[in-house]
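Could you help me review a protein record that somebody else here produced? Here is the record exactly as it was handed to me:
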Amino acid sequence: MPHNLIIQAPVDPAPHLDTLASLSGARDTSTVAPGLAYRLAGADPERHAAVDAFCDQHRIDFAFVPAGRRLADYGLLVSDMDSTLITIECIDEIADMFGVKPQVAAITARSMAGELDFAASLRERVALLEGLPVDALARVYDERLTLMPGARELLADCRASGIRTLLISGGFTYFTDRLKEELGLDYAIANQLEIIDGKLTGRMTGPLIDAQAKADWLVRLRGELGLEPEQVIAMGDGANDLKMIAAAGLGVGMHPKPVVRQHADVSLRFVGLDGLSRLFA
């Protein structure tokens, strides 16, 4: 099947197009977004390694996309929250309100890199928040939570293409529920913090949303919507996202940890979430 090589970067990658055409075997070049993204038609996916090495050196994002593939060919976008749809790790910022961010952030980093069991590490981090007033969650949402660049544009493109959206997180419902309402998402799933007398207890209630749960929800919702596996996009950044990425037709690493980059079909390391839409422009 003929493929296009989509090239994009924060700094205009146009000076590198001739080299990339040679490396990929592409025949024709056209502009997707002036100064930002380009399409190299007739590229050979078997030349992925050479293109990857060059793009890594020059901080360029790339993807081999089947010619004619449209965003509307997909029916479901499943997204992680922390460091994917938003720029922060919510639990680290909650911990900062309690003076324990260094301890929590260190565990978070190792967990997302795949060095720690996610469920155990999450319980350990939540336990450190015992006694924190619930008002701290509102402060994190209002003062520190920012969307990943391009998030609103990607979601608008998904709505225009008839794609349903699921936000699923190993984080907390306090944030996913608010993002669902603010952004008009179709579904939101996350962990529930236990709160008694206006304070966090250091525990969670209900089913744990871990890597397997993320994949299970993707498969469940895919079935409910009557979609084939190849009609699902899943995107995330950490080891906790690997199983849902594997269950999707298109797995996207968003500013991914190395373990995710190894397994994702596409990695957006330098551009924003709207870079996903540009793959199909």
